[in-house]
Amino acid sequence: MVTCEELRHRLARAPRAPRRALGADEGWLYGDEAGPAALGGAMARRTPAAVLVGVVDRPRGPAVLLTQRTDHLRDHAGQISFPGGRIEPGDASPAAAALREAEEEIGLEAGRVEVLGELAPYDTVTGFRIHPVVGWIEPPFALRLDRFEVADAFEVPLQFVLEPHNQRRHSYRRGTLTRGYYVLPYEGRFIWGATAGILVNFSSLLRA
After folding, report:
1. What is the DSSP string of 19-65?
2. 26: confidence class by pLDDT, cuts 50, 70, 90
3. Domains, the chain
4. Mean pLDDT of 148-177
């Protein structure tokens, strides 16, 4: 079972940036799998964002805290995501942004989260550079959802995320471009896109 200290130790060894332009260290994803043309190149200007990869300490094993966005939002409506959003000028760090967004979106108080480290940034075809911030959450805690943005908050057992057979490969073709991506189907929910990519990276880190 993964512990807080083991997770902190592994995060200290996590890749921080790609060693090749839009490339990947073996087993590590640095962005949506749509190719350099779609991503705009490694040096493309991107909007910085941060998400909280919250690991909840549960008796049966740690679980990852996720949200489902409401259906009426302009961007990523209905999708599964981590709590998070754009890094604002007043945010001292990606961790500060992730904690602020988590409190705004789901009412998770920053004082309930012990920040353990970060995964490498993850670039999306929608123009964001996401900084995944990993935090340890000790129960009990109460959530208060912003019902405009968040339809639901739920937990996925970390053991489910770690199982390779739960990390399924899908792809689609648009014109001459074929995009590959990961999907983690969990209890009727469809976890994909950047959220799935970050979870796959997190899994690679913990299985190493």
Report:
1. SSTT---TT---B-BS-HHHHT-TT---EEEEEEEEEE--TT--EEE
2. low
3. 4-207 (3.90.79.10)
4. 90
